[in-house]
Amino acid sequence: MKLYFHSAFRICAIRTIVAVFSGFLLVSGALAADVRHASHLAPTGKGWAAEQSNLAFTVVTGNGINYHNGPIMPGQVNVYFIWYGNWTNGQKASDRQTTVALLNALFAPQVLSGGALIPMGIGGSPYELINTTYGDNNSDVTGNIGLAASTTDNYSQGRTLSDSRVRTVVSSAISSGRLPKDANGVYFVLTSSDVSESSGFCTRYCGWHTHATISSTDIKYAFVGNPDRCPSACEMQTVSPNGDSGADGMASIMAHEAEEAQTDPDLNAWYDSRGQENADKCAWKFGPTTGAIGRGAYNQTFANGYNWLIQMNWENARGGGCDQTLGGSFYTR
């Protein structure tokens, strides 16, 4: 089984057969949080934990995940896409504007109607509302997240990116005015299949999130590459519900990083005693699906009508567990 840990999709060298996904076990009872070493392991943003001392607890919830005094992202969280590379006629069939349109639909902004926000994509959906079980000393995550703006980047940092070059891509988009500077936004660098990331894309992770001071502002950003570059490592299925394996694979990775960016934006808020953030705790776990995994299965349908296979998220309530919607049944896979 492929696994991702912390703020990244991390790849395990050993995979089990697809039969492991054929059944789903309901979880009952509380999962007690093991906090004995929680002050020593913290997320790195790259898919594994690192030693870190002097972390103080504000709360120990008993829901299998703990708060470490850092901020969450409150209110409306804006998403910004930086389409890096060739998304018109690239090497893979998914390096196309079809992928762009699908992921725009996934993060479609909510629509204001009658004084209420109506979900269209993932933002405000029952799935996204799982994140409302997380908060800090000032506010809770709202689950309101949506695409605010996009831009393109024609290989300004080459076809092999490093972590620092990913940061430069984000910084350039902001400093040039192509995207606004937004402390309550998440900037996704989305790379076409011919672009590598030297710190481990396709070998150690499929995506990651972090933060940095850019233009004197704490900017949150993420890297997600086109998983058609390495489908055996970063895609659950190549026959996908929207007929675009790259877009469908990216959807779950982007949901993963978005959940964590909201609940642990500075890598010092919500994670467990092993350094796993909320989405890490449900990595490659999907729950019941319509159709068989590997044959275009899906488990989420949002208001704009698209079907998606998206990993579950860890609900910080009722003892804690992975579910597909807020208040839904917990599943172990």
Order of helices and strands: EEEEEHEEEEHEEEEHHEEEEE
Number-wise, the strands total 18
> What fraction of residues sit in β-strands?
15-25%
Distance between the termini: 10 Å
What does the largest sheet look like?
Answer: 5 strands, mixed
- Identify the overall geometry: globular
Number of domains: 1
Mean pLDDT: 87
Helix content: 10-25%
Strand order of the largest sheet: 8-5-10-13-12
List unreliable stretches of 5+ residues: 1-7, 12-40, 53-60
Question: Which radius of gyration do the C-alpha atoms yield?
Answer: 18 Å
Assign the structural class, choosing from mainly alpha, mainly beta, alpha/beta, alpha+beta, or little secondary structure: alpha/beta
Q: How many helices does DSSP assign?
A: 4
Please, could you describe this protein's structure?
- The protein is an alpha/beta fold and 333 residues long.
- The chain has one domain (18-323).
- Helix content is 14%, strand content 22%.
- The protein is built from four helices and 18 strands.
- It has helices at residues 97-106, 163-175, 231-234, 245-263; strands at residues 41-43, 49-51, 59-60, 66-67, 77-84, 111-113, 116-118, 145-153, 160-161, 185-191, 196-197, 207-214, 217-225, 270-271, 300-301, 307-308, 313-315, 321-323.
- It has a five-stranded mixed sheet with strand order 8-5-10-13-12.
- A hairpin with a 5-residue loop joins strand 17 (313-315) and strand 18.
- The longest helix is centred in the C-terminal third of the chain and has 19 residues, at 245-263.
- The protein starts with 40 loop residues before the first strand and ends in a 10-residue tail after the last strand.
